[in-house]
Amino acid sequence: MFETLPDAKPDGIIALMQAFADDPRMGKIDLGVGVYRDEAGRTLVMQAVKDAERHIVATQESKSYLSLAGDHRFLDAMGRLLLGGAVPEARLAAVGTPGGTAAVRQICALVQLVRPEATIWVSAETWPNHVPLISAVGLAHRPYRYLDAASGTLDRAGMMDDLAQVAAGDIVLLHGCCHNPTGVELASQDWAEIAALLDARGAVPFVDMAYQGFGEGLDADAGGLRHLAARLPEVLVAASCSKNFGLYRERVGLAMAVIPEEHRARVAGTLAGLNRRVFAFPPDHGGRVVSTILSDQKLRALWQAELDEMRERVHANRRTLAEALRAEAGTDRFDFIVTQAGMFSLLPLTPGQITALRAEHGIYMLGDGRVNMAGLNAQSVPVVAQAMAQVIDEG
Ligand code: LMR
Prior knowledge:
The N and C termini lie far apart (48 Å). By secondary structure, the protein is an alpha/beta fold. It folds into two domains: 12-44 and 312-394, Aspartate Aminotransferase, domain 1 (Alpha-Beta Complex), CATH 3.90.1150.10; 65-295, Aspartate Aminotransferase, domain 2. 47% of the residues are buried. The model has no long low-confidence stretch (mean pLDDT 97). The strands form four sheets. The protein has a seven-stranded mixed β-sheet with strand order 2-10-9-8-7-3-4, sandwiched between helices. Strands 1-12 form a two-stranded parallel ribbon. Helix content is 45%, strand content 13%. Bound molecules: (2S)-2-hydroxybutanedioic acid. (2S)-2-hydroxybutanedioic acid binds next to loops.
């Protein structure tokens, strides 16, 4: 049966994780997969999560099935965290999903069901799994320009020119904050212009929110999404709690549509049906942890303080790396790192330099130069800066 099955194409991020794990060298540095690490390199369970879990274990009486959408307390709490009351709850239809990845997949499946001819526009640089998820449901995709590689900032004119070509009914995928992989944020003026343009063209935004809280803060990071939701009749959302609650392997996410109230029941029912046909019920434990934290004042304050600390540490890593690169490489061409946000930046290195960093220095980053800033610490920053200066010197 499998004689003609071609070899599976490895996922770049997951393959890199494995290569790092298999590397026996002491002192190897993992700047690959987007996972937060503390100064000691650990990805610890957050204290607020531990406390919530203790409470759940002590009080939970049943693990019987809930609804196909999952726990409504999780969905309601996440609706408020994401949208901050920007639209009435009656305009929201949401279902829980196993992580943000499945949320993207379920939104794509929803689009495919109602508008199979739609093209999904994706930023030219994007999370490597976006396009495979879109293609998996048979939808077409097209890139729009995003990064101005020379300056490490937004190619605003290129982006708006490309988006001016979206057709009525097309979908435009936007990163809610902390753009993966570029770290380049949209300013509120950009969100306003995009909203006006999509409205004029009759296209629908699809916001992937995987890093809320890692950019400027929980509310600031959701500002663009909230603007779109308040301004436009329809917005699609995929959200993940992997990073901001540190719940990676628990798989906690949600797929949400912001829609006119009269469509709510049908869209919610359709999303629930889509869940039924893939995994039936979304996992419960992680979502229950999230809703427990968000509904308890003390736990919520603890969680926000922990998240603030993580964000500050990543920002500090950005500053120290840019300074070290100035000193080591004698250039300010990496200063853009400080102006960017979230876990990632795309370093302008050649494939040969990226391979040399891995082979000769044990420094792991993605093949396109994406670096996880959360993987750095005081010890590794000078090592990375020196190694980068060396491989750049060598050409
Ligand atoms: C990443 O971009 O590294 C993370 O979102 C992990 C993943 O699933 O790819």
